[in-house]
Hints:
It is a single chain. By secondary structure, the protein is mostly helical. 44% of the residues lie in helices and 8% in strands. The chain has helices at residues 2-29, 51-60, 67-76, 96-105, 121-129, 143-149, 174-194, 205-218, 225-237, 245-252, 262-266, 289-296, 320-330, and strands at residues 41-45, 86-90, 110-114, 165-169, 305-308, 314-317. α8 packs across α12. The chain starts with a helix and ends in a 21-residue tail after the last helix.
Amino acid sequence: xxxxxxxxxxxxxxxxxxxxxxxxxxxxxxxxxxxxxxxxxxxxxxxxxxxxxxxxxxxxxxxxxxxxxxxxxxxxxxxxxxxxxxxxxxxxxxxxxxxxxxxxxxxxxxxxxxxxxxxxxxxxxxxxxxxxxxxxxxxxxxxxxxxxxxxxxxxxxxxxxxxxxxxxxxxxxxxxxxxxxxxxxxxxxxxxxxxxxxxxxxxxxxxxxxxxxxxxxxxxxxxxxxxxxxxxxxxxxxxxxxxxxxxxxxxxxxxxxxxxxxxxxxxxxxxxxxxxxxxxxxxxxxxxxxxxxxxxxxxxxxxxxxxxxxxxxxxxxxxxxxxxxxxxxxxxxxxxxxxxxxxxxxxxxxx
Length: 351
C-alpha cells in the first residue's frame, strides 16, 4: 500500500513538473514571437535600471505580454541580462529577444549633426541648440568657456571645428559633438601641415587654417580652390593686401545686411583685408579638408587678381589693367541672374 502511494505521488510530481516545464517553455517561446509595430518606437534605458525593472517597463509599453517570461529568461541566461543604458529603436518584426540582444550589445539609436563648410562658429552653436535628443550643456556658456573645457583656453573658436556629419546618441551632449569636431580638425590640420608644399608664407599651421577659411568662403566652384589659394599666396609673397570681401563681411559682424559699401571697405576692423596687411587674426569660417589642402598646395601661376563671373566661377587676371577690364565686364554690367556662388541644389544644407 505504501509503495503504491509513493508511486502515485511520484507520478503526480512528474506530471506536475512536466506541466510546469511545458508551461514555462511555452511562455519563453513567446519571447521569440515578432512584435507588430506600425512605426519604429524609441525605448529608453536609464542608468542603473535592473533587468527586472526593464522587463516590467517592456510589459508596460506593450513589447511583451508578461514580464515574468523575461525575468525567467534573465535568470536562465544571466549573460543576456547585462543591459546597457541608452535609447533604443525597436521596429516592426523584432522579437523581445531581439530587443534584449540590442540592449546587451549597446546598439543604441543614433542621430546626426552636420557642420557645413563655410559656417561660422555662431552657425555651429545654433545647429547644436536645435539638435534633437542631444543633451544641451553649453547653451548658456560663452565661447571662452567652451574652448577652456576643450583644453584650448584663451584660443579663438572660429574655424577650429571640422565640417562633417557627426553621429551622436541620447547620452551625448553638445560638448561631446564639439569635442569630436575639434579633435578631427586638429588631426586633419596636423596631417595636411606635415605634407605641405615648400616655400609657403605661413609661420604656423594656424596661419594656414586662416588662409583655408578665406579660400573656403571665396570658392564657389570647388575646382578653383587651388587657383584662389595661389592668388592669395602670391599677394602675400609680394606684400600686397589680400583685399577679399569675406573678411570684410566677417569683420562687420551684425552690421552686415547683405551688401558691402565703399565706406565698409574703408572702415578699419582687424579683419578688413583692404585695410590690414597680411592675414586676419583668426579664421573666418569652417574650412573643409579640400580648402586646407589648397591653402597648403596652392596652384602655380601668375594671377594676382580674380573677380566673380556671376555663375559661381571666377575670372583670373595677371595684371591690374586686365583685372579692371574683367570687373567692368562681370561686375559693372551684371546679368539679372548674377550669382557670386553657384545656385544651391535642392539637397544642399544651408546654415
